[in-house]
Every structure is written in C-alpha cells, then in structure tokens.
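During the reporting period the student researcher (J.K.) took over the structure-prediction task from the postdoctoral fellow and processed the backlog of single-chain submissions. One of the processed entries is reproduced below for the supervisory committee.
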Amino acid sequence: MAEENIPVVEKEITEAELSELLQIRRDKLKSLQDAGMDPFEKVRYDQQYYSVDILNNYDELEDKVVSLAGRMMSKRIMGKASFAHILDYKGGIQIYVKRDDIGEEPYALFKTYDIGDIIGVVGKVFKTRTGEISIHAEKIELLSKSLRPLPEKFHGLKDPELRYRQRFVDLIVNPEVRDTFVKRSEIIAEIRNRLNAQGFIEVETPVLNTTASGASARPFITHHNSLDIDMYMRIATELHLKMCIVGGLEKVYEIGRIFRNEGMDATHNPEFTTIELYQAYTDYNGMMALSEDLISHCCMKVHGTTTINYQGNEICLAAPFRRLSMNEAVKEQTGVDFMSLTDEEARAEAKRLHIEIEDKTATKGKVLAEAFDEYVEDKLIQPTFIIDYPVEISPLAKRKPGQPEITERFELFIAGHEYANAFSELNDPIDQRGRFVQQAMEKAKGDDEAMMIDEDFCLALEYGMPPTGGIGLGIDRLVMLLTDSSTIRDVLLFPTMKPIA
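J.K. obtained the following structure tokens:
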C-alpha cells in the first residue's frame, strides 16, 4: 500500500488504514535514517521569504532565486514533473518540481515525501501558464518528517472538542484559526502601545497569594510545601496594583492570567487574561474615556473601521458609548425604581417580577443587581456603560458624593456581555476595612465568592492613596468581539478541557 496513492486529503481514513499509514511513515523515516539522511538532524534553514512576500512582490521577484520553508499540504506527481503546495506562517504558495532541474535522485526522494512533511525550497519565482505565482524548484530539502497524516479535506478537523484538544492540528488545517490568534496578538500589542504612549508602565504582580481578594470569585487553592501554608491563585491583580499607586507609580497596568474556580461556558474559562490598570488623580469618568479609546483603536487596528458585525449584530465601537445608571437601566425594562424602595419593598417587587432572591434579608441594592442580570444585561447590544452600582456589590469602589448607597462604578456591556469593570477607587482605609469585614461576614454565612480581609492592602491605604481610577478589561472577550468568535475557547490557544477517561 503506497501512501502517495491514497487521496489523503479527500477521503475519510479508517482505523485500519490509519494504522497502516502510521507504519508506512515510520518505515520511510527508518529508510532515510539508514541512508544517513535523518530529517530530525536538521538544525537550521535559511528561510529568506514567506509565501505572502513573494505573492505581494511578484514584479520585483520574478525570475529571482528565493528560499522558503513550510509544510507540504498537497502533492501531484505527473511523471517527470510535479506540483505541490506548501503552507508557511503567512500563507501558502505552489511549487513546481521537475526531475531534470533538481536531479534524478532528489526527485525520486521528493516523490516519497508525505503530506504534512516540512520542506525547504530554493527556486525561481515565476507564473504558470494559468497565471499562478509559483516557485520553480532548484533544490528541495526535507527538514522534518510528519509521522501522522493530516485530517482529510472534506471532513477535516471540525469537531470542536477535538479542535481544542489538538490545537496544533487545528492551526495547520484551519487558516481562519491562525488568523484569530494573529489578531489576538495585534490587539494586545495595540493596548500596550496606547498605554505606553500615555505614560503607563507595565508591572508584574504575584500569581500566588496568601489571601484571595480583589474580586468576588471562588479561588483555586494550592499548598506551599516549604512554608506549609495554603495559598490562592490570584482572582484579580487589583490590590497589588493599587499598592503600586500608593508607592508613587501613578500609572500602572498588568496584562496577565487570572484564575477562578468557577463554571465553564461560552464566555468563561477557569484561567483567562485581563488587563487591569490604575491611574492616580482621575475617576471612573476618566476610565470610561480610556476604555473607549482602547477598544476603538483595537478595532481600527484589526478591521480598519469601528463598525463590526458580531454574531449577526452590527455594532459601532466609535466613542462615545452610551451611559446609563444601573437603576435607570432596570427601570427602563421593568418600570420599577428599586433605589426609591425599602429593602422589604424591593424584595416584594422582585417576587412580582419572578426574580429568585435566595437571601431573604437581601438589601434593595442586591435586589437591583439581580433585576439587572435578569432583565437588562442581554439587551445591551451596542456599547453601554452601566454606571453607579449599589455599595453592597462594590466593596472596592468609592461612594458617590451625596449618595452613600451608590458607588462610582461602571461595567461596560457589548453584545449582551460584560467587557470591563471600573471604579473611582475607594481610598478611605476605615471605610475599606469596614467593607472587608462585611465581606468576611458574607463568607462566614457561606458565600464562597466573598472577599477575604487583605491586611497588607489595608496597611497600604493607611499610608494614603491619591484619588484613583481603575479598570479591568477582559482580553479574551475583546478578542472574541473583534474576531466574531462565539465562544471563549475559540480565542484561547489551549482552553481548559476535561481529561479523556
């Protein structure tokens, strides 16, 4: 059974055929090694061009000798001449291989190469009679042997679970997947460029902590053997970054992984990437302007426009975004002004609206937040800042002057999902400790997501933190938005997966 006679890219392969193909490829490798041509001994190759460089600059490169390298994705043997396509980092290009040009032995060896092998090609740039820009090979080298066949063309690697588990294959056979991760890199680079140009500095804070604070979330717990203490993987970078503000670093940010021991769905993964940034002497209005700037510039970087289509919705990401208080947003949808009610009246209204409130002593602020989740969030398609959150659900935000029940906090919603969370940061150490104590009481009553008291942060605040604005922005969700991806797994190279039994 000669493997080059099998239409590998056009038919499904049975288990028996796969087993035979694997053995054939290993036999070919052994023959090469026995002949002193082990492809795995290659240590480098002079790759001068990518395919796209040649395609885009044909007029300059016509008849010039170039070298490039990539994975062979197809091959057509036609007697003394052959055609093949190779895939490199930027795209693909056709190569023309003629026995009389590369030599009889090298040509015979080339005919044994398999789909998926990585090869180096030196040759002249030309156009075929059909007008396709190609490389007329003068020399071909096998740089690495593929011991396993790629998925076939028509069925391909389509099963989502298999794609995520074998992302390395997904990247090879699905060009749009590679494009997503190139765009992800561009988005992150654009965020860095915009912030660095505004005088922000990038810092790094601990991933392992002795307390789990900075957000309302369930942490992952691990054990430090040398210290013999339990430690928590960070659920936010907030408190350490605000300690930097206390220390005089007036504009700081960190892009990094966050870990939360919570559910998994289309927009949640146990580990994910955020950017958190803090700026002294500004407030949540300043953070709104900054987030508008970052998102619109990232959109322009990727699409060249601020209007995109996301999952069937046309969305405009040009500033300014709409601003609406949480109470006003809920009132628009339900007709109820929750913040004008007593706690008991708010709970009664929730019952009337069929909102389940587990805590029978819930305050009107907590009821308002539940009503927002139930009636408002999924309706916010165009970018909207929901501002002025109840103090009970905002333990790290500054109270709004003249409205002690409300904090200067906002969340940004686009396409029915949250993208950012920001505050005028609480810098009153006495108020902050009181809110930490309240959170500790909630945790004692069984709330696994309530914060712990962070004594180091409380100490830092006692030295004095200037008025500060801060924001956390979900990188993964922003990439989803700007690449029209429906699930977070599509924008994580290696999403968390349940092991196969």
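The committee noted the following: Confidence is low (pLDDT under 50) at residues 1-10.
J.K. will present the remaining backlog at the next meeting.
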